[in-house]
Amino acid sequence: MNDESTVKRFTKWIHANLALREAVQLNKRVNYFRGKRFIELLTSDPEKTELNRPVVKNEAEAKMVGIALLKFGMIHASEVANKKKKELRPVRANDFSAEGYYTWIYEGSKTMRNLLLVLLVGSITAMCLFPIWPASIKVGVWYVSVTLLLILFGMLFVRLVLYVVCWTVGFEVWILPNFFDDDLGVVDSFRPLFSASRGTDLVETGLFRAAGLAMVISFGYWCYQQPTEFDELYAQQMDFLSELYDGKLLADPALEEEELKKKAIPNVEELEKALEEEENEQIQDLDEEDNILEKNLDDEEHHVDEQAQAEEEGEQIDEPEIPAVEEEEDEDEDEEDEDEMEI
What we know:
By secondary structure, the protein is α+β, with helices and mostly antiparallel strands. The chain folds into three domains: about 5-110, Arc Repressor Mutant, subunit A (Orthogonal Bundle), CATH 1.10.10; about 130-225, no CATH class; about 265-310. The chain has ten helices and seven strands. It has helices spanning about 5-15, 35-45, 60-70, 110-130, 135-170, 200-225, 225-245, 255-265, 270-310, 325-340; strands spanning about 20-25, 30-35, 75-80, 85-90, 100-105, 170-175, 195-200. The strands form two sheets. The chain has a five-stranded mixed beta barrel. Helix 2 crosses helix 3 (about 60-70) and helix 5 (about 135-170) packs across helix 6. The longest helix is centred in the C-terminal third of the chain and has 45 residues, at about 270-310.
């Protein structure tokens, strides 16, 4: 166990197969394990051979492996500083104990960490480029964000109402009690899902709890007596959700500008359709003009045929009489001249 390369090989296998837990140490999130879990791992199936697995036959040999990890700085000893908040603090120890706590210094392969770093940088860059995203992706992100926000607010509302109702009768009930604990990791924030305990200050807060219970009962009775108002409130909430999902509450200047561009600048299909309609209108106008010309020609031919037939039969076509307006005017002028001469 004095060869550092051998210890590193053992460390790699132990780190990959030992169940790890998260805690906070010196304001930093770390992974730790109990000494007894370490010993159980190494002493289970001693006949089984695996690559980089240390050959251990009993608990004493397993402790020797633990001492080697401490010696070469792969782990260090710790103790519990705050059990509720899962806080540890480092301690000096050269011996390995089954009841001790040990924090990992060895980080293992950094490939996954580098991939996560690249993913984080890419995500931040993509978020900065959000204004130039396609409209369909923006709508999808909006739907997902609104849905998650509604689920969060719904859970918080149910959580608060349940706590208040149970608090008035002397119990403290929480859904996801560690949800807002900053000292815990993401997974530990959802553990446990539910907690319930009897109140320890019933004497001091008995009057307040009774008043709260009376208010809860009064509010429930008022809700029972006002079904119509709650129907209207429910309809308003549904309208609000509909507008929220449609994106009508918050206007997106980029989307509005894109819609205006679509209306102002027609695409190729619209231009082809407009040209086709214009050509059809021109063809219809030409067809109408041809029909009118053909009709006029037919009328003229029919009239010429009638005149030719009438001449052959010796008939004359009656011409309309023109009233003799000019002769009457001449007679009136002659009569006026004669009257002047007599005078």
